[in-house]
Amino acid sequence: VAFGNKFKACVLLIWQGVAPPTMNLEIPDPVFDGHFMPLACTLKKPMRAVLSNSFGFGGTNTCLAFTSLT
After folding, report:
1. Of these four, 13, 21, 35, 60, which has the most CB atoms within 10 Å of its CB?
2. Residues 8-49: pLDDT tens digits?
3. Which residues pair with residue 65 across a beta bridge?
4. pTM
5. How confident is the model at residue 1 (pLDDT cuts 50, 70, 90)?
6. By the 8 A CB rule, do 50 and 43 touch?
7. Cβ count within 10 A of residue 9
8. Distance CA 44, CA 39 (A)
C-alpha cells in the first residue's frame, strides 16, 4: 500500500509540475540562501525527475527515481 501511494504521488508531481514544500520547515537557514533553499510553500515548476527514499527496519532501504518520458 505504501509503495502504491508513493508511486502515485511521484507520478503526479512530475505530471502536474509541482515541487512540494519541505515538511516541518518553520525558519529556513540563511546559509542556503542563493544556493539551495528548502521550500516553505508549494512551487510550480517543470519536473523532469523525482526521487523517492524509503527507510525501513533492519536496513531495508530503497531509493527509486522516476523520470518523465517527454
Report:
1. 13
2. 888 888 999 988 888 887 777 788 776 666 677 888 888 888
3. 51
4. 0.66
5. low
6. no
7. 13
8. 11
Residue 53 one-letter amino acid: N
Please give the helix or strand (H or E) that residue 10 lies within, else none: helix 2-16
The CA distance from 19 to 50, in Å, is 9
Q: Is 4 helix (H, G, I), strand (E, B) or coil?
A: helix
Q: What one-character DSSP code corresponds to residue 6? A: H
β-partners of residue 63 are: 53
One-letter amino acid for residue 19 of the chain:
A
Strands 43-44 and 49-55: what pairing? unpaired
